[in-house]
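Working notes for the structural subgroup meeting. M.R. asked for a predicted model of this chain before we commit to crystallization trials. I am recording the input and output together here so anyone reviewing the notebook later can reproduce the run.

Input as submitted:
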Amino acid sequence: MSIDAPTSSMAGLLTTAGRYARLIKYKFVIDFLLTLVIVATILGVDGLTADGVPRTLLFFALGMLGVLSAVMTLDDVTGAEDGSDTANYVEVEDTALRPLERKPLLTGELTVAQARRFGHLSLVWGAVWWTLALLVTPHPTLGAAVLIALLLFLSVQYSWGLKLSYHGLGEAVLLFSATAFLLAPYSLATGELPLLVVVQGLLFGFGQLLIAGYSNTNDIPGDSAAGRRTVAVLTSARGNRVFLGALTAVNLLIVAVPPLTGAAPWWFALVLAPFAVLRVRQYTGFLATGDPLVARSRGIATFRTVVACMIAFNLLYLFL
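Returned structure, recorded in token form:
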């Protein structure tokens, strides 16, 4: 055996791992895992170290990795099979804002069969760990069980299984799923869902929705040809602008709910102000230029900003 064989094997494993990492859109998986950081800052040290909570959150995190991997992978499987990804990535100019390399099924680095098998195994992995999380939680509630069951079932139905985004329900599924990824672990850890947590879940959910909304705007030709019925496909250009504007307005109004209801101090809105400025910039910039990919990129920055703002508020709220 060549002395270089172990090195070659390791290089091959790393190459394969990199392909699967791009398949699951690892940067977006990391973004979603930030829900656990937000939950941790709400709970504080006492909440995090309470009996049974560390194990519960660990099991949920392990399951979350599987479910998110399944969602991203099976979405690409459907996109490869119905031609929508080919239309949206291959038959258009490759751009740094949306590079073809993020689609290893289109570049031929992975086969659809490999991806489908990986997606199914990831979903099973997620279901097993979430079941264990429900079994070991110190605060078992029917609400948490129902929320996790719905999240497990609906999150992968966006473009696989029931293909809800092909029936005009994609935006609703995305908002629910992204929001529930924050609500579920908190509910498991405490058995409760106070208004401030629900608001932060919605801010996280709208953050993802207002990335996807502009992405769908860019993908109108390919999605329409494949039968994916997003709001961008179903409405006129003006109607889509109104829809995105309405989502932006609701997203901003959510920030006012905790101070107005007494669920948080007045300075909650002040800490969230940087996010609000970027959200307005995203929409007004799109109205001015009509470029959905730039708006999508700004949406990613806005989403990460709102996460940082929520973490900052939670830490300040713990110690003030």
